[in-house]
Structure formats: C-alpha cells, structure tokens
Amino acid sequence: MPFPILRTPLVVISEIIGLLEPNEIVTASLCSKKVRRLLKNHYQRRKPSKWRLTMFSWSLVDIMTRTNKNRTNVMMARHISELPGTEHKLIEINGYICTFERDIPVLYFQDQVFGTKLVVDYVTDLFSLDIYGLTTFRNGLWAFDWINNRQEKLLDSLGLSKNPSYVLNKDKTVDNVLIRLPCIVYRNALSSDSVSINVNVSHNVRFNGKLGPVDVNLFDSNAHWVTCDYLMNCNAIKLFVSFSRISELDLNSFLRHWRAGGSPRLAYLKVFFASLDTYIENFDQDLEIVKTNEVRRFRVVAEEDVEEILEDYSIQRQDGVKATISCEFGYFTMIVWHVDGNRL
Fold it and tell me: Domain F-box: where (predicted)?
C-alpha cells in the first residue's frame, strides 16, 4: 500500500516536513526509498543552512537547529555486541539490524567505525549538510582525517571529551592528546566557532600552548592544567575554565597583560575554581581597579542566554576600553565592554 504522503501536493508536503524535528525526519526517511528520495529532494531545494550537524566519534549524530538548547540526536551506530535482548523489537534496514531508542534509529555493526561513517554519510546526504562539528575522544582521532577527506569545508567546532559509553575508561588520561591539541586544531579548523575540552588529565600536566582564533573556548571539567600563560596566549572571544587552580597572583598577571593590550578579542572570561572557598579580593594597585556597584546585562553565547552581573570592580585598558570584574566564592568573571557591544 503506497505511503499516503506520497500522493499529497508538494506544497502541503513541504509544510508537513517543516513541522518535523530532525530525528523525526531521519526516522521517516527509513520507511521506504521513495520517502527518503522525497525528503532528500526537499532539502536539496531548501537547504537548512542554519542547521549545524555534529558528529560524535562514539557513533552518534546530532543536529542543532537554532541554538545549543535546540540540539537533537538523530541517528546512532553501535557494535553488534550491544544488541539488546528479545524484549526490544528488531527490524532490518538495508541489511543492518536496527532498533529505536529515545526516538532515534540505532543501527548495529560488526565494525563500529564503519557504522559511524555510514550513519554520518546517511544523515549528511539526507539533509545536504556538511559536518559542522566533531566531538571525539582518545580513540577517535581517526575522524579528523576522515572528515577532511570527505568535505572541503573545515570544521567549525571541535570537542575533546570522555566517551560516555565506556565507564571503565573514566579514569584514563589523555595527556598525549592534550599536548598535540594545538596542532590538531591548526590542521583541522584554522578559525573555529568553538573548541571544548572535557577530559581527564594527569595532575602534573600543565598546558601553555596556543589555541585559536576561536569564538568560544570551553574547558568543562578538571581544567587544573590550564595555566596563566595559556590564558594570555588564548585567542578567544569567550573563555570558560572549570575546576581551575589559577591563583590570585595569576589573575593579577593576566589583568596586567590585558591592560597592556593583550587578549584584544576577549569579551568574556569565566573561571570556576577547584575550591568553592576561593575568593579573589586582592588586586595589585598598578591595575587601577575601581570598586563599583552597577548591575549590567550581557549576552553570553546564544541570543537568549543573558547573564545579569553585579559590577564589583571596573578596570580600564590603556586604549580606554573598560571591563567589569565580578568576584564570588568559587568563581571569577570578567566582561569586556567592546564598543560594538561584544558582537565580534
């Protein structure tokens, strides 16, 4: 029996497709070759240019339609050994076993790297999209060369993360990968929207390398290895550092560097300290920091992501640009008020 939507006028079909979420579109495309062709033709005519497709080297594909809050997992590959029991309904698609979990299709393969490539190729072909971002882990660096060989466009977003699928690897470190990170970024994304790092690193490792230019640089956990020299070298607009061991002395050095014209692109710096008892309150006199009590609002990343900040201190660069400093127990915030409203 023909799928009813295939007999529907094209204008109506386009309206229906526009109401579907990306994961629903991928699922619908698996119904038949005709439905897949219909959906593919639709996105060839109306390419979703604002959508951002991210590949995770542990075999997941997601799509961001508007902002980070609008991310949807759309397809996944797993090793055949992870095939669920008979309580799950199994179907076969193009010769591969498939289940549906959390509203997305999951395909099973003997070779998971092959499976990852297959599901990424399927989704990018369906939506006529390049891979926008890659999040990988210590065993997934193969994905960089694979992406560079399949598309001309450089990656806009890079992430180095712990693989959530492997609990036994949660304590393994990636010291060697971290040391190579500047080279990886330079080779694969000369100017990136974001670089995020969420990995385990040995306690004695410190990172002084250069990353950037990048819009957003996020160190999401255990960033004890981020040094003051890195803060000075980092060519980022917005920089987030979690579980930091940066000292009050380090921050004074960084502020002195900034006043002299260093880090000219920086608009936002947020440091979350490893100890919640850490409180920055002593600033060197030569920094000419002034105490204030003004309340201001700042768009952090997305349009709707606005932070209200109590202006504890004000500091001025030698070229006249001012910045707000806010100090609370456990974190330090600095916002630079560029003349263009931080829309760099």
Answer: 2-54
How high is the pLDDT of residue 330? 92
d(CA 338, CA 344): 9
Give every residue of the chain whose pLDDT is below 50, as ranges. Answer: 1, 167-169, 171, 343-344
Tell me the CA end-to-end span of the chain in Å, nearest whole number: 55
Q: Single out the residue of 246, 211, 243 nearest to residue 227, CA to CA.
A: 246
Number of domains in the chain: 1
How far apart CA 297 and CA 231 sit, in angstroms, is 24
Secondary structure of 154-207 in HEC code, one letter for each residue: CCCEEEEECCCCCHHHCCCCCHHHHHHHHHHHHHHCCCEEEEEEECCCCCCCCE
Task: Return the pLDDT at 1.
Answer: 39
Degrees to nearest 5, angle at CA 50 with 46 and 55: 105
Which stretch of DSSP H or E encloses residue 150? helix 142-150
Whether 93 maps to a domain, the answer reads: yes
In a domain, 53, yes or no: yes
Is residue 233 a contact partner of residue 210, using CB atoms and an 8 Å limit? yes
User: Residue 122 corresponds to which tokens in the numbers above?
Assistant: 């399927």
If we measure between CA atoms, which residue out of 112, 114, 209 comes closest to residue 163? 112
In a domain, 85, yes or no: yes
Which residue range(s) make up the domain with 74? 21-130
- Chain centroid, CA 202 distance in Å: 23
Model's pTM, two decimal places? Answer: 0.79
